[in-house]
Amino acid sequence: MQTTTELLGLIELKKHSETIFEGASNFMGSPNVFGGQVVAQALNAATRTVPAERICHSLHCYFILPGNLNLPIMYHVMEIRDGGSFTTRFIQAKQNDVPIFVMAASFQKVEEGYFHQVPIPKVPMPEELSQWINIDEETHPHIATMMKAYLEIPRPLEMRSCQPDIRPGEEASPENRVWFKFKEAPDNLDWKTVQQLIAYASDYNVLSTALHPHTQEANFLNTQLASLDHAIWFHQKTDLSDWLLFDLISPIASGARGLTTGHIFDRSGRLIASVSQEGLMRPRSFK
User: In the CATH scheme, what is the code of domain 4-283?
Assistant: First the structure.
């Protein structure tokens, strides 16, 4: 899967009934289904059950079991409430009739109100950057080999980090700022479709940011990493013709879990979405 058009084909689900949809999966480097794929597909299912004038403003998810790449995923939407301004949906994703993921999503009719936002951080522009993740092959050959294979997997996203160098054994800041852009994105995508694409991208770089302060002892080989929950708040519309900046910080890791929060900005500095995720960070030597 190398283009945005291919990704859109993956996200757009097969309809079985007014509230049941079916999705397939794509290998993205993990033996399990990529979490961002399930978030995007669940949002696609929920969106197709709400009135056209209602737009998703937030979603909250739990990853229950690893998804099997070889099995279809069935999305069951529960129509919780259709109010005067807000619509609420609950979505279960199942494989072999066993829940692997749940989402609650809220939709709102367009309204005007007060406005403020945090500013975009001062960072290099994507044209000044060239790498996403870089690990020195001479000092850490095994980790570098694994990451090279991961980075060579075709993706519909291009990513460039403001801090691409990961130096195992050296303490790093619990921060990460990554520009990302969808490859060959079609023109004039509607905002609901753009939301689903952003949901897909929002699972990249999040949990790895929580690992940064622990590179003296932790790495991708000796630590079990998995998304546990995920939340997105959509604030303002954007298109996908240009780069977006994911500004991430991990305020804490404890109890074999790491928490990361982030803001997604467009190049002009408009805050498009906010993201929060807690993930498993279990040292493999521990039980």
Answer: 2.40.160.210
**Percentage above 70 pLDDT, the chain:** 90
Residue ranges covered by each domain of the chain: 4-283
What is the per-residue pLDDT for 30? 80
pLDDT digits (tens, 9 = 90+) for 66-121: 999 999 999 999 999 999 999 999 999 999 999 999 999 999 999 999 999 999 99
List Cα–Cα distances, 65 to 32, 76, 105, 130, in angstroms: 10, 16, 20, 35
Measured distance CA(279)–CA(67) in Å, rounded: 16
Burial letters for 202-233: b for 16+ Cβ neighbours within 10 Å, e otherwise? bbbbbbbbbbbbbeeebbbeebebebbebbbb
Three-state SS for 230? Answer: strand
Of 42, 57, 38, 54, the C-alpha closest to 90 is 42
**Cβ count within 10 A of residue 119:** 8
Q: How far apart are alpha carbons 234 and 86 in whole angstroms?
A: 14
d(CA 111, CA 130): 40
Beta-bridge partners for 29: none
114 three-state secondary structure: coil
**CA–CA gap between residue 213 and residue 166 (Å, rounded):** 11
How many Cβ atoms from other residues are within 10 Å of residue 265's Cβ? Answer: 25
Active site residues: 203, 227, 277
Check whether 194 has a pLDDT greater than 50.
Answer: yes
Tokens of residue 165, six digits: 């160098």
Helix, strand, coil percent values for the chain (each to nearest 5): 20, 40, 40
Report if pTM > 0.85.
yes
